[in-house]
Amino acid sequence: MKSFRVLPLKVAIRAALCMTLGTGLAIGFSTSTQAQSLVELYESAKAYDANYQGAKAQFQANKYKADESLAGLLPSISLSTTDQHQTVRANEPDNASYKQLLGTHTATLTAIQPLYNPTNYATYKQSRKQLGQSASQLVAAEQDLLVRVSQAYFDLLASQDSLEVVRAQRTAIGEQLAAAKRNFEVGTATVTDSREAQARYDLNSSQEIAAANDVRVKKLILDQLVGMVNTHPKPLSKGAKLPSLAKDDPDEWVKEAEDTHPSILNARLALEVAQLEVEKSYGGHKPTINLQTQYSDQVNLGGINYQGISSQSSGDSRIGITTFAVVMNLPLFSGMYTHNRVQESISLEEKARDDLDAARRSVSLATRTAYLGVASGLAQVKALEAAQNSSQVALDANKLGYNVGIRINIDVLNAQSQLYQTKGELAKARYGVLVGELKLKQANGTLSPEDLNSINNLLEK
Fold first, then answer.
1. Same domain assignment for residues 338 and 416
2. Residue 374's domain is classified under what CATH number?
3. Does 295 fall in a domain?
4. Whether residue 253 sits in one domain with residue 205
5. One domain for residues 144 and 279
6. Whole-number Å distance between alpha carbons of 131 and 134
7. Cβ count within 10 A of residue 76
8. Angle separating helix axes 409-443 and 250-260, nearest 10 degrees
9. Helix (H, G, I), strand (E, B) or coil at 68
10. Is residue 4 part of a domain?
11. Among residues 195, 170, 168, which one has the least CA distance to residue 180?
12. pLDDT in tens, the chain (461 residues)
């Protein structure tokens, strides 16, 4: 007879939830069976994320749209044909009748080459600028994806670390609870010690449930972002040293943003597009000159049928005509449309210039804020590392004092709580620095996929 091992209720429920979740999300996702690095998950997200793929498709559409404007500078060729038939019936005085069949076949080939069209030329230059805007928007979408993946990656690691800290704290509290019960049994401690330890133990159980649920939520967020099920991000390696800031002066970060940030580049190109729009508006006062070539081939058919006897008349003919012309069109008056269009374009140019100034100020503020956040985060990590060491020493001292009777149980529990709280905050601060550096590079527009490689080197192999 086979024996079956009964799983604890919590483990069974968790296993059932995982099986249900895996079945429900299997459609449309790829599965993962081993730990993935940040770069691997980013590459997966790049091929899956709808926002990035949409920005990429928009760039391709704008690229074709930019090429459309070239048609205004190139020749246009058209072919038109007509086929016309006419029947004429008549009766003669001598009762004779006849029917005349007439027909015309015409084919016309027309070619037009613009020689001078300032509006079309300005439109073509605008299209190239607008394509540059689309490229900067695609870069911004890529940078946004980099930050979102990194944020979700380290949010999950931080959540997992918090769960491990809570569980380690529960083990320590359990040991302290057992010691309090033993000391009460031998009469060296009061019942208050064991009750305090039990209260902390029960509170920790609640915290563990919340932390475990947070891990599941963060895992779902990362799974959804990268298009995988049950992702396993690689943790930071033990003793990983956080990189320092590449530049210590925030002004250098701001200065670098002037030539690299997608928002500034986009606003600068928008100003150039507005300036070209003013040029197009002035084109409404200028003439257009086209070279037009046309070849027409016309065949005229005619025939007479006398009382059912068919004969071909001598009226058939074929005519071929070739023409060359230079056509100039000079607008004289358009009901003040062109004048008002010029004034409108000038106002929009001024708005585009103001938008560029606003983009520069916004990028400068965001860059300085991100810089201060990273600098503060690095300082906080150092402070928390020192606090962790101090908390460990304090906990050891309280445990020793409790054993010799100069400390009570609540002192040990408080010291334990302080130590594990510091550990959790230190882990979050370290992840915050890594993500903060990426956000700093995003803020000044220099973030690229290569920046993930330095973080990847800090992960476990």
1. yes
2. 1.20.1600.10
3. yes
4. yes
5. yes
6. 5
7. 12
8. 40
9. helix
10. no
11. 195
12. 333 333 333 333 343 333 333 333 333 344 445 889 999 999 999 999 999 999 999 999 999 999 999 999 999 999 999 988 877 776 766 666 666 677 888 999 999 999 999 999 999 999 999 999 999 999 999 999 999 999 999 999 999 999 999 998 888 888 888 887 887 887 766 788 788 888 988 998 999 999 999 999 999 999 999 999 989 999 998 888 898 888 889 999 999 998 899 999 999 999 999 999 999 999 989 999 999 999 999 888 765 554 544 444 545 788 889 999 999 999 998 889 999 999 999 999 999 999 999 999 999 999 999 999 999 999 999 999 999 999 999 999 988 988 887 887 888 888 888 999 999 999 999 999 999 999 999 999 999 999 999 999 999 88
Same domain, 89 and 213: no
CA torsion 88→91→96→100, rounded to 10°? -10
Q: Are residues 360 and 444 in the same domain?
A: yes
- Which tokens sit at 41? 């998950």
Give the DSSP letter string of 307-323. TTEEEE-TT-EEEEEEE
Report residue 149 as tokens: 């993946």
Question: Whats the size of the chain, residue-wise?
Answer: 461
Q: Where are the alpha helices (DSSP H) in 408-450?
A: 409-443
Asked if residue 374 lies in contact with residue 434, where contact means CB atoms within 8 angstroms, the answer is: no
Helix, strand, coil fractions of the chain, as percent rounded to 5: 65, 15, 20
In sequence order, the β-bridge partners of residue 291 are 113, 326
- Distance, in Å, from the CA atom of 373 to the CA atom of 367, rounded to the nearest integer, reads 10
Mark whether 396 and 306 lie in a shared domain.
no
Final residue of a structural domain among 329, 354, 383? 329
Domain count, the chain: 2
Q: Going by C-beta distance under 8 Å and a sequence separation of 6 or more, which residues neighbour residue 352?
A: 267, 270, 271, 273, 274
Residue 2 domain-assigned (yes or no): no
Enclosing domain of residue 259: 10-73+118-286+333-456
CA distance 61 to 134: 9
Element (H, E) at 329: strand 317-329
Task: For residue 39, give both structure tokens.
Answer: 């770069």
User: What is the rounded CA–CA span in Å between residue 283 and residue 72?
Assistant: 14
Q: Which of 261, 296, 329 is the last residue of a domain?
A: 329
- Structural domain includes residue 312: yes
